[in-house]
Amino acid sequence: MFANSESYPLRTVEISRVALLTNPKAGKGNASRAAEIARQTLTRTGVDVVGISGSSAAASRQLAKEMIADPDIDALVVCGGDGLINLALQAHSYSNKPIGIIPSGTGNDTARALGISLDPRRAALTVVRGFTSTCDLGKLRDVHAKERYFGTIACAGFDSLVSDRANTLAWPHGKARYNLAMLVEFSKFHAIPAKIYLDDKECIDDDVTLCSIGNTTTYGGGMMACPHADHHDGLFDVTVIHRINRRKAARNVRRFFTGEFEGFPEATLHRAKKVEIHMPGINIYADGDRMFSSPVTAEIAPAAGCFIVPRP
């Protein structure tokens, strides 16, 4: 999990005062309960807790920016899912102000990548100990030069269509909504014309089912899309699923959860610092949220993140 390199330093910081950023709606409302457990745990160990919660995504992002800039705050602790962590990353990147995580979302793939317990009390105790790890982030840029950082995986293709569909459904909630959207879109399953450029050299010009750009290994609550990704190596792992018919996709769906792509000719695995995706009409998602519409460029941001993690 940890890189033995001066480029990815490990350190221990004294945690006396933290800002606790919460999304009460995350994880079907579980974030409120998790935040209270975390707050009590932190307080009992002598840590001063400043509770913050934005009324919108923009408000949460602004609060995160203010707390990261505040010299009296030792760490920004995010209680929510991957989406709220992503908002915090926009202010956090290259700041060296550590982020702690109390996982309470639906997927919790960032916490999974960092080895953070899903139990809020144990996660809070990890924050108290203040052991930090530096790691890579990804940075997306659209044709208008707008940029967004991400921590886990950016994807485009069939999964984007499923996410677009899920966002239109008022019911059900959580993973059930995503699963329903997947069933609807699978009935219209098809590959998408794409051009994918790797480090401005190799070009994949093909009909593609899915392209996953991984800083870490999983997304969607544990789907092993990029099984060999390492967020300490300065590279993306890129998994491309080429054209595949509906029947074969259904027979091999387990591969998308286990990452067992060997012997699966429709899957090709690549590594790159920069990936440019052209998929007309497709939205790109990262950390579970919609980022930009294609075309989009993803570039690795080496050692841009700093997280409080369990000591090895």
Automatic annotation (TrEMBL):
Residues 13-144 form the DAGKc domain. Keywords: ATP-binding, Kinase, Lipid biosynthesis, Lipid metabolism, Nucleotide-binding, Phospholipid biosynthesis, Phospholipid metabolism, Transferase. PROSITE patterns: DAGK. One of its GO terms (cellular component) is plasma membrane. GO terms for molecular function: ATP binding; ATP-dependent diacylglycerol kinase activity. GO terms for biological process: phospholipid biosynthetic process. This is Diacylglycerol kinase. It comes from Corynebacterium poyangense.
